[in-house]
């Protein structure tokens, strides 16, 4: 098994005005997830839930970014 850590600290907040012209750092993370067989999420608890930055990452991964490219979390 090969494990890679994805740094998503520079990920912009999901904002629908930029959703269909996604930023370059979002494209890079989506491509890494697309190529992976699966992924794990590790995070500290924040107020009995996951931190907002993790929710933001999941939002970027779970939404289609064009009419051709859908979300990248299918079958992961």
TrEMBL record:
Top-level taxon: Bacteria
Annotated NADPH-dependent FMN reductase-like domain residues: 2-68
Pfam families: FMN_red (PF03358)
UniProt-recorded name of the protein: NADPH-dependent FMN reductase-like domain-containing protein
Protein source organism: Acetobacterium tundrae
Classification of source organism: Bacteria, Bacillati, Bacillota, Clostridia, Eubacteriales
């Amino acid at each position: 098994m090969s494990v890679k850590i994805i740094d998503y600290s520079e990920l912009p907040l999901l904002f629908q005005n930029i959703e269909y012209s996604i930023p370059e750092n979002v494209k890079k993370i989506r491509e890494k997830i697309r190529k992976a067989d699966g992924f794990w999420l590790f995070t500290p608890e924040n107020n009995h839930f996951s931190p907002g930055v993790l929710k933001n990452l999941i939002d970027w991964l779970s939404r289609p970014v064009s009419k051709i490219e859908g979300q990248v979390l299918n079958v992961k």
